[in-house]
Amino acid sequence: MPRDLVVDDAVLEILAEQAPLTVVRGPRGYGKTATLNAWLASAPPPHQVVRLTLAREANEAEEFWLALCTALSEAGVVDGEDGDHRARAVRSLVRRAAPLTVVIDDYHHAGRLEAAADIDDELVEAVRQNDQLYLVVASRTTRAIETTGSLSIDVAVVSPRELRLRGSQVAALATRLGVQLNDREADQLATGFAGWPAAIRDVLVRSRGEGGRINLALADDYIASMVRDLRHEQVRAFLLRTAVPESFDAELADLVAPGDSTLTILRNVRSAGLLREEIEGERRVYSYAPIVRQALVRMLAESRPDELREVHRALMSHSLHERDHVHALVHAIHAGAWSTAEQVMEEEWHHLVTQEPAVLMAAAQLIPPDVVAEHPRFQVARDEMDGALKSSRQGRDLIWPTGDIRGLTAELGPTRLRGGMDTTVFALVQWGVAAVLAGDEPSALYAFGRARTLSQERDGESAAVALATLGLAGTHAIYGEVDIAASWLEDESLRRTGDVPPELAEYVDYWQRLIRALIALDRLDPGAAAAVAAMRERPRRDEIWGLEVFVAAVNASTSGDAGDIARWAANVRAARHYLPQGRMAEMVLRATEVEVLLSGGLLDDARHVARNLPVNAVSLSTHAHLALANGEYRQAASRAREALEVVTLSQRSVMECQLVLAGAHHALGERAAARAAFAEAIRTAYASGQRRPLLVLRHSVFTALAAGDARVLDLWPEAYRPTERETAEEPRGGLTELLTPRELEVLQALHQHTGAVPIAEVLGLSVNTVKSHLRSVYHKLGVTNRSGALRRADELDRAGPPGHVGMG
């Protein structure tokens, strides 16, 4: 045995405590023998020790008893010469009067089946009868001596968990062996092998021969040797086949490695420490350590490629049954089941390209070039995904689940077949639509842009070019880039539609009208209402229809008509129930309901709806807007800043948050911060073409922040400017003019707290200071109590253009 091994002191302590029965259990190479050596060399028992190492011949019960009897005889322990080997050995152990420790290494060789159980029972009974006898066995498998033996005698178990090497121990072993290893590499080696001592040492020793630098590729040799040395082919097949899935339960193990003994082998392999076990829900899930799994899979691929494909086919069928389309696709590709792979990609394209683009791209790289050439979606996954991933990598964690776009596919499918649209282009268009619905603007623009380019290169097919151009216009419009969207609508490809089939011409016209209406609203064009009225109604209640509802509701909120606002708030509430829950389109409608109510001055209703509005990338700007309307200026500013950190925020929401910041700072008397935020909002307005977010501010605040700049003042649309009468009626000396910044903070705190004591705690002031500020606030507002102050503050803060809420 090698001397340069590391044995945990805690394990040596367990052995030194000398339980009546001690079991050292672990798979091959887990240092069982080395552990026994270290124990007997460092702190052996103070009495006689008999040590025996079994060989495979001990599978026969008679051979086991002969070996034990011989070892006892050589130690002078055998009692008498009469009887067979079993009787002499058992009698000697039971009658031993002085303390004796018997150490049996490689105990897994002791008997088979019923014979093994009989041997275990005899030894446990001997220990039970003689309190001077101590038995230590080292075994690769769990046996009855450990399980049922613990029912009648005290048993100490050193399991694989105690025998595993940790990162610090791996580093110490590497130092002894002269291998250069930093802490990260030591932890990687320990984790990759799940602490398997002999495997780790084997890699370190081989690496020493290669210059002293760690080489994890050498792990394959040790694992391959271990697998080849297994006695039973069923166990060998089990290890190789169950290593293919990343994890498995008992049912999946039986599927990929079928056989009468599968569950028995699973239990033995787990108890031997080769598998990690976790509880997921109500299932026990097993997995191999990463390096071990990789080595097993490589061995299966090199020595049994047909079996590897067979396992992948079984896993493919299982994944399809579980509706796990990502893994179904991966296994289909590994199995060479190209028709199944194409079917999965056809049916789940919208999900794969938005939720799992990296997996899709990696899987496509495994497909042979001649197969890729026959499948357009394979081509897109292999050649196009990388470009989109690079452009949208920052916001990957903010991508929403997509809706079911099969309806859109059904609409375009017959047209595609009749018009001869290139299938690769069609796949790109589908990708673009799915990306829009998932909130992945960069990928949508990439997909539509590539579809347009390929269409122009491949005979300039007018239908495909028009669809791709509409996709670009719609994406820019939905994400608030108004001027770019308008320029795409003027593209020549949307004027030359003479060759477009009638069904597709209607589709192009539908989208043009919808996009024009959204652009007109964001610009606050005088003809916005007419553009909305010109929209065509979509019969299918899907996420595209949800966009229609959004546009119509926004139009109502800008009209200032109380009846329209109330009606469309109800319409939005009803419409979102038609859409899949938890997706971006449904979340947009939930936020829109709050915005519509705010625009109508229905603050209490807006608060009520917002209670159930989750805080996310879509709703952050709405929550900021609501906090501003509610007079919670610090919270409004905090929400707005939080939203501006989100990389997927639309330009519409970016400008709205910048204006919320400006309004909040202005309300708090923080003039410099208000002007800075306002300047950012104006830059966004010029860059994007957005105007509608300006209505977050009341006109008097807008003009105050514009500071006489005629170019900025012209951004406010004429139709939304207050009349002379409304301007004259607007209260003078607003809150920011009447109160100091600290008095404003005290007034804001008065919304949530009823007295000076809690306000003092919240603001970190003394109670007397708060009382002084309250007296000053009441005096300046001309009131005598809290309710009067809140009512007067609300009056001053609400005055503004008809149909809009004054918010700072």
UniProtKB/TrEMBL annotation:
Classification via SUPFAM superfamilies: C-terminal effector domain of the bipartite response regulators, P-loop containing nucleoside triphosphate hydrolases
Tree of life domain: Bacteria
Residues in HTH luxR-type domain copies: 732-797
SMART domains per UniProt: HTH_LUXR
A Pfam family recorded for this sequence: GerE
Name of the protein in question: LuxR C-terminal-related transcriptional regulator
Species annotation: Georgenia daeguensis
